[in-house]
Model the fold of this input.
Amino acid sequence: MIARLTDGVPRRALILLGLLLAALLVAPLVVDAYVLSILILILYFAYTGQAWNVMMGFAGQLSLGHSLYVGVAAYTAAALYVHFGLGPWAGVWLAILISMAFGLVIGFLAFRFGIGGVYFALLTIAFAEFTRVGFDHFTWVNGSGGFFLPVTQSEDNDPFNLRGDPVMFYYLLLAITALAFLLCRWLLTGRIGYYWLAIREEPEAAQTLGINVFRCKMIAVAISAGMTALSGVFFAFYYNNLFPEQIFSMSRSIELILGPIIGGVGSLFGPILGAFVLTVLAETVTELMHALGYDIPGIKQVFYGICLGAVVLYLPNGIWPPLRKRLGLGDRS
Amino acid sequence: MTRKLTRRQFAAGTAASAALLAGSAPFNIVRAQGAKLKIGSIHPRSGFQAQLGIACQRGIDIAPRVLKMMGMGADIEIMSADTESNVDVARSRAEKLINDGANVLIGAFDSGQSAAIAQVAEQKGVPYIINVAAAPQITEQGYKFVFRNFPTAPMLVGDGLNLMKGVFEKSGITPKTAVFMHVNDTFGQAMAGAIKAMAPRFNLPFQIVETIAYDPQAKDLSVEIAKAKATGAEMLMPVTRLNDAILMVREMVKQRWEPKIVMSPGAPGFYENQFYKTLGKFSNYLLTNVPWYNPRSPITQKLLDEFTKSYKGELFELNVGFSFEAVMIAVDSFTRAKSTGGKELADAIRQTRIENHVMAGGVLQFNEKGQNVNVKSVTLQNLDQRPKVVLPLDISEDNLTLPMPGWSKR
Amino acid sequence: MPPELVATVALQGILTGLVYGLMALGLSVIFGVVRVVNFAHGEMMTIASYAAIVAFGAWNIDPLLSMVPIAMLLFALGYVMQSVLINPFINRPEHSQFILLAAVAIVMVNGLLMIFGPDARNVLVDYSLDSIEIGPLLVDKVRVITAGMAILITAALFAFFRLSHTGKAIRACADNHLGALVIGLNVKHLYALTFGIGSAIVGAAGAMMTLLIDTTPNIGPVFTLQAFVIVIVGGLGSMPGALLGGVLIGLSEAMSGLFFAPSAKTMFGVAILILVLLFRPQGLLGRRP
Done:
């Protein structure tokens, strides 16, 4: 079963992956606090992008409302912690379940009624918006007033309650990102992975071949929503305050999926590379504008938007697929 | 994976990294005495809060000049960052500012972004002065390095309701019924919560007959005003932002709803430049109870002059005033601490006692939670299309004019 | 609840809905033919609004007049956007188109922020705050005018697509892409033309919108979303559907605001959208794709 993860992967790829992991493991010891905070953002977007990719990249269902899963999970874990004193390690399971439930309901409705393509994408936006306004009125978690987690001031990290300094959060994220990577590899090389591929490329043919398309899509939605839940729980405990306007917003959903699309939809390493490229790009542009003395609000985003457009224009499949070809790393990584 | 890391190990790690990357990383741990004070200003200058973040930044930008004129000239440098109205960016920009050597942070207008910055500041032991943000939770977290020179929502409401009674007494007009309309965002809901909790204690003469909450992204308030008008209430008590305040008044004119009093218990909107430009004569006579600059203070006059010179056509309002004061607090503490060390600066800020400053209220000082408890609201009335202090009387600029004349009689 | 109140609110809801319907119509026309969802729709409208504000500020031109040149300007913008930027994406997957247009939207929003600054701008004509009395009802004059214009423009567009040669050719493209190529239609040009027409409509709507609301650079995304809701309810690609969707959403939001919480009224609009997507995904007046 474990062997399946490495079967057919060129040795070079394994070595490069190992080197990358090693670099990320020692990074907190060498980089400063600012770079660390950027690394956390990169991993956060890499992980969430990976989760989204299961639905879009693997099973071909475009979701533009993933902030929904981040949000409900974040609120679930935070509410359990604040109202019942239940720590994140216990709360995360319920958060995952609730997120999956949301995903399954949306998936059930959409796939039962045969909604696909653009219509499915717009349905996901609609549900996220619906939930956003709903949470604005959800007084148990303080509605639009914002939900704050108590911050404890202690010298030591408390990993059981996820209270502590950024280094702890960094390693936590690194762990779940690495696990997500392995999980996705495992899924892709398993039967479900091939079913998804068939559904993504030729839904009708998949149906005639006897694949239970509905069930496979539902599995993809459930896994994607469940994985995304973790990033919500992380968000809640890292930032310690939640606002519906922020966490459920459409721009948040867009932010989450830029990485995997730029990196390469459907590839395993794409979301990670995409998150890295975009976060570094955003920071570099900010610094560049600053260094050049252009302190005009908006100029950074204009530049960022142009870069984004250029990437999709010239690299239709994202950055990673052409890059891995050049690196000679095969075509399924 | 989540091995226990202590702060000490973390510090050792970063120190090692600093050594490794010496030259390339702009990591500043040397905080020599008598050094320059680097102030990191961090505000939402793009994104949906751009308008307000830019107003705050103006207050920061002119501060060094004005302080110098006042003889408070210290060696300071302002480093500015943009949160893009986004909490992720707020956090990483705060880290960047501290890394680039900021000794004190000032920001951030928005409660969510302020809360994110507060955590970074606390972890790094860099004092953080919040200029504007009202969510009470921020100063209830037990932070040692976080200070707020702005009232919390309950403070705003307490002052606002008290001043209302003053207005009724002064004008002799006491409404029996009121409609409470509020924007349903972070600020609006904090204010609504405070009003709900506190109104019974204030023994208000009027009854709130209807509470109407509306979406912050509302593009049209016709339903809301129709509903409010139908109650026949004598007073409208709105908690708004800017754009919805304009929509609200415009809709009141169109629907010819003329309550005797329109008085905000402590919210932006009515006193902003854009409001006057857009509504002209219809902006007059509206009231706002809000923390405001003390027009009689000599420092305010200096600041006002400089502001008018630097930003033609812009209005000097509370965001500018509080932002300026934040710089003033930082410089004052720096002068006393004679150090740029985080702990020394925080201790000095905690002992701040500034008698003469810009905003109305008592001595500028912080309680043990880092909250300025002496900020006081004033009653502003829009007269001649600009905000004028009408209460308290000792700093008033003009006379209270009530009841509000009808829209068609202007 | 007094009946005049309900009637006033309902009428206002319908009038507002018609204007929003016009705004959404552009999106619908483009999707109906080019099959691309324009995620920069609201942002293009904001550009038009700023153009109207500039025209009013500089030469005191009423937006109801300036909307003609602004519609032409937006037509040019749309034509160029389609032929240069979007055309290579016609056969690309949806997420690819989505990112391209999202990038365009980012550039537009922040470009406007750079040029015009963050302050809200508006146009104040002398009838801005007038109301018309109809029996016991009091109706906003600007809304009546803009709603009337919305119906006129939609009717004109409908006539164009039904009667003119070019309109028929565009419809042929929409119905049968391959067939259109076979009979020698210049599909690329027709697509760009359609995108231009859709943009012109949103340009007209944006100019009129300055009479109703204040414009800030960030207002675009809200309208993009609103346009989606309306066109899906009415039927993506259907012209009368867009107006019907607008009216339905406008009316339901007004009524839910009156009878329930105004702050939750967008929830009702979205709820209608979800129901329509589930039970009649082609929209009320749309055809099954």
Observations:
- The first helix of chain A runs from residue 3 to 6.
- The two ends of chain A are 18 Å apart (CA to CA).
- The CA atoms of residues 184 and 195 of chain A lie 14 Å apart.
- Chain A touches chain C through 46 residues (CB under 8 Å).
